[in-house]
Amino acid sequence: MGLPEIRKSVAYYWYVLNQDPLTIVGLAILASIVLVGTFAQPLSPYDPYATSAAEALDLPSATHWFGTDSLGRDVLSRCFHAAQIDLPLAFVSVFSSFVIGLVVGSISGYWNGKLDEFTMRVMDVLLAFPNFILAIALMAAIGPSMFNLYFTQVFIRIPIFARLVRGQVLSERENEYVEAAVSAGNSSYRILSRHILPNSIPNVLIAVTYNFGYCVLNIAALSFIGLGINPPTPEWGIMVSDGAPYIMTGEWWLSVFPGIFIVLAVLAFNLAGDGITSIMDPRRRRV
Amino acid sequence: MHSGEEAGHLLNVDALSVSFPLFEGTLHVLDDVSFTINRNEIFGLVGESGSGKTVCALAVMKLLDPPGRVVGGNAWFGDKDLLRLSEREMRNIRGSKISMIFQDPKSCLNPFMKVGRQMSRVFRTHSAMRDSEAGEKAVEMLSKMGIADPKNIQNYYPHQLSGGMAQRVMIAIMMSCDPDLLVADEPTTGLDVTTQSEIMRLMRQTCTERGTSIWLVTHDLAVVAQNCDRVGVMHAGHIVEIADVHSIFRRPLHPYTRGLISAVPRIDKKIRSAGIPGQVPSFLNPPAGCRFAPRCTIARDQCLSDKPTYVQVEPGHFVMCHELK
Amino acid sequence: METILELHNLTKHFVQKGTFGSIVSTTEVPEVTVSPVGKKIVRPAVTRKESLVHAVDGVTFSVREGENLGLVGESGCGKTTLCRCIVRLIEPTGGRIIFRGQDILKLRSREMREMRRKMQYVFQNPSNALTPRMKIRTILEEPIRNFNLVHGKTELLSRLDELIGLVGLSREVLDKGPHELSQGMKQRVCLARALATNPELCVLDEPTSALDVSVGAKIIDLLEQLQKELGTTYILVAHDLSVVRQVCPRVAVMYLGRIVEAGPIDDLFSKAAHPYTQALISAVSIPDPEIRREEIRLKGEPPSPVNLPRGCRLSPRCSHSMERCRVEEPELVELEGDHYVACHLFLK
Questions:
Q1: Using CA atoms, how far apart are residues A229 and A211, in angstroms rounded to an integer?
Q2: A179 contact residues in C (CB cutoff 8 A)
């Protein structure tokens, strides 16, 4: 009929996204932050590590748009460079977590026997802990470092994705096209990988996008309490933490600007995630 | 065609046109659809999937989902044009003057509320009743709908009911205010054969008792043959033929109607049918003239370019075709 | 004619764990008890602990080569479960399935996979039966590849062309996905997939109920044509007797997991013996307003397959039921010339 072919084009996706202006806003913010992080070096007016006692705690001005912190470092430059830490870390750890959760969840969901029961009980135990508490416990146990932070973020999310994928696989498995695939003589492996998984993943991708936001928050919060990135590396959470005592004395800009970046990043991920949802699931579109 | 006051029609749909503006372009779904429903009559709107029959019913009830829009025509109900009423006025009509039941009754009921309670709530919305009175009326209606053990059933949740029972509950709810018109969109599709005939009988009986007309939307010609007084046949957003049920089956005039009737499998004899050639045309760029022309065996050039008008072949028997003048 | 399939006492029970929304029977009188505090408790007649759903309960019949069998019944009668058991998409709980002299229930998974070549299944709703977003080409290649039916790429391509032409579709369909096709085209693809291995037996589960009338008519036509060309035997499941009439010379009627009547279609239509068959046939609408038939009605609602009535399963609803019917379940016996019925009215 011609209808579905056009629907696959970029122009159509743009049209769908346009139905909800907030999605465009979210994508725009996300794009900006990513750009800022990628080109942090050329975009930053100052070296994020350069201290200057004379310029410490300066108000935002023409020379320092976001002001300076207690060691005279330019807050703007530090915010930009922090994007280089937070965003890639969030992307990579959430994706790794997703892949591992995918494997665990799909095997568990498809064969659904004793192995599934055991795995799910393990996942349940992990899920019983609030995400952040588990992260704190892990980081406290293995010590703060970039790799450990990555490991922790991956670890705490595996049960989430495993559960989600397993749920999808369990429900897809009951569909007739799976029975048809069996009837056509396919092996279990092929049915799982070629028939079930491609139809299970789209719904989980939505969780992936909003987990990016959670991950950024998680990292920032861990750094805030000193269990994440170590100073002097610029990171939004650390910056908020460093600036906290100064709010009382009126120097708000140390915490507020990195705080705004955190808010924007999480907001952007969530809004963009909504947009992806409407592309993936035609029923949600209002077109 | 004029206001429904004339000629005593209950519902007079006149030149109804509905479009769906989409990314790819506009889907011109309904094009100049006109028909009438009289009092105390069962009118069957028959068509295959994609013919626009459900869109037609939803449009008249003002229940069309966006982006669907009515782009022309009137729907006279008494002296009111339903399409021009405000949402508030329409809400007063829905449920009390015109009711609608749908194909999957379980999905129309609130899954978290007991069935009896849902019913009593509806009663109390449309009339001043106390809780206990409404509850009693619910049990009474359930029993009238042929449900055994209504006192127990009123405490069930929708998913615990069978399809047939759920539909009976829907009918009970929808008939509770004695509407003038009941719109039924594929009410028996998906139900068992024995249940289907029970439900249809129940609907006929209930409506005859209260003087309610039924507008039945269905793809099932057999159901139409056994239950309806008048029939309208739809194809690709056009009503191609309207007549009383005997005329339609005895003397189908439009090529589509004839093709459709000959294609229905029958239990009493084996039929040989090649079906209807071609496919339903796309609503995106429908033919300018008759929408059936690309599939029609007797079409001429004129048919593709000029849209045919309704021709009254016999009193009450209208056909939309160039060939049948 | 050679017998191609034999079922002996096939049974399938599902264990239904007590859930919040377990099926409830409505024809049974609810159980009324008094709690220790004197409060009256009314419980529906189905216990909510582990109950057995008797989907298929001792079905025995045989299918002859070339003689299509129609299986009819209403929802809950077990015909769909039965069909899935025949091709072992569901594992039966008991009984034997003999296909060309071999008990397929005794086969192990690899051997069973080989057997699938000869027994195929077509599903009711083509939209659900085709993997979303998978190209038709891939869907049709799978049975061909899995059963090693061709050697080499060229043979594969020509076989695909052959298949797609067999069901009356054009080659462009191969590169499309299921969502781009109409219902009728999808069902043709499902047929093509089922017939790709040239099976001896093809079970079709309501192949036209999800389709429009005119589209369904073409599919039925196609089925008959394909049978002539390929020599497959069909088992056609339908709740619509009219469809079965077109294709199957022989019909079996099911009610609550058992066969109540079986025989040549003309016999069943003109002189149906079992009260249920009579009610079923009388309920089928004929697309002709001149023909208004007297309908034989059954009382009440079909009971749930969990709580089966004692004796004949139709007895609570049957207007002919006698004392004997409530106690003893009737066996399937031969009435005359291949016409079997399970009813005490005919058992002496």
A1: 20
A2: 84, 89, 121, 123
Q: How confident is the model at residue B274, as a pLDDT?
A: 67
Q: What mean pLDDT is reported for chain C?
A: 83
Q: State the pTM of this model.
A: 0.80
The low-confidence residues of chain B, meaning pLDDT below 70, are 1-7, 274, 325
Q: CB under 8 Å to B173, separation ≥6 — which residues?
A: B118, B119, B122
The single-letter code of the amino acid at B16 is L
Spell out, as residue ranges, where chain A has pLDDT lower than 70: 1-9, 16, 280-287
Phi, psi of C302 (to 5 degrees): -60, 135
The verdict on a CB contact (< 8 Å) between B260 and C213 is: yes
With beta carbons under 8 A apart, name residues in chain A contacting B23. 6-7, 12, 15-16, 287
Q: Domain ranges for chain B, please list them.
A: 6-97+179-320
pLDDT of B234: 93
Cα A203 from chain centroid (whole Å)? 16
- Residue B181: what pLDDT? 93
Three-state SS annotation for chain C: CCEEEEEEEEEEEEEECCCCCCCCCCCCCCEEEECCCCCEEEECCCCCCCEEEEEEEEEEEEEECCCCEEEECCCCCCHHHHHHHHCCCCCCCEEEEEECCEEHHHCCHHHHHHHCCCEEEECCCHHHHCCCCCCHHHHHHHHHHHCCCCCCHHHHHHHHHHHHHHCCCCHHHHHCCHHHCCHHHHHHHHHHHHHCCCCCEEEEECCCCCCCHHHHHHHHHHHHHHHHHHCCEEEEEECCHHHHHHHCCEEEEEECCEEEEEEEHHHHHHCCCCHHHHHHHHHCCCCCCCCCCCCCCCCCCCCCCCCCCCCCCCCCCCCCCCHHHHHCCCCCEEEECCEEECCCCCCC
What is the C-alpha separation between C339 and C272, in angstroms, rounded? Answer: 10
The alpha carbon of residue B23 is apart from the nearest alpha carbon of chain A, in Å, by 7
Is C107:C20 a contact under the CB 8 Å cutoff? Answer: no
Lookup result for tokens 């779904």? B29
Residue of A nearest to B280 (CA): A1
Q: For chain C, list the contacting chains (3+ Cβ pairs, <8 Å).
A: A, B
User: Which chain B residues touch C241 with a CB distance below 8 Å?
Assistant: 193, 267
User: Nearest CA of chain A to the CA of C2: how many Å?
Assistant: 25
Chain B hits for A16, Cβ within 8 Å: 23
The class that CATH gives domain B6-97+179-320 is alpha beta
pLDDT number for residue B148: 78
To the nearest whole number, what is the mean pLDDT of chain A?
85
- Of the pLDDT bands very low, low, confident and very high (cuts 50, 70, 90), residue C35 is very low
Alpha-carbon distance of C101 to C110, in angstroms, equals 19
Q: Which residue of B has its CA nearest to A19?
A: B23
CB proximity list for A158: less than 8 A, separation 6 or greater: A97, A100, A101, A104, A123, A126
What's the confidence (pLDDT) of residue A1? 35
Q: Is the pLDDT of residue C221 over 70?
A: yes
Domains of chain A are: 76-284 (1.10.3720.10)
